[in-house]
Inverse folding.
């Protein structure tokens, strides 16, 4: 049984930073590309960042390039999303997901507001 648990969200001012974590179990973690996604109120879920199994290849949506960094620790079965210079438009529920599996956690709320 695959489990995904996101954490680390919160309320920050514009320009602030947060680090999200996503712990997984029930999969051979290092074999999976992992993705961070987000869903804002009234909008569709969108892909934010991807990282391959070995952690040496990453991809980002244009709006977060240069501000967000995805990383992973395969010894801890955990993927991270460091978010800097946060903007109000980054407000959303953030989810992580092993690419190709329909396994989702409860998400973690990120709110960027002054």
């Amino acid at each position: 049984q695959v489990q995904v648990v996101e954490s680390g969200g919160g309320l920050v001012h514009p320009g602030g930073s947060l680090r999200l974590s996503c712990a997984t179990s029930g999969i051979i973690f290092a074999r999976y590309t992992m993705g961070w996604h987000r869903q804002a109120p009234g909008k569709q879920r969108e892909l934010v960042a991807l990282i391959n199994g070995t952690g040496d290849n990453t991809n980002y949506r244009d709006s977060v390039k240069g501000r967000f960094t995805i990383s992973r620790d395969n010894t801890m079965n955990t993927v991270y999303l460091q978010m800097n210079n946060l903007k109000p438009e980054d407000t959303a529920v953030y989810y992580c997901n092993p690419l190709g599996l329909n396994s989702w956690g409860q998400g973690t709320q990120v709110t960027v507001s002054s």
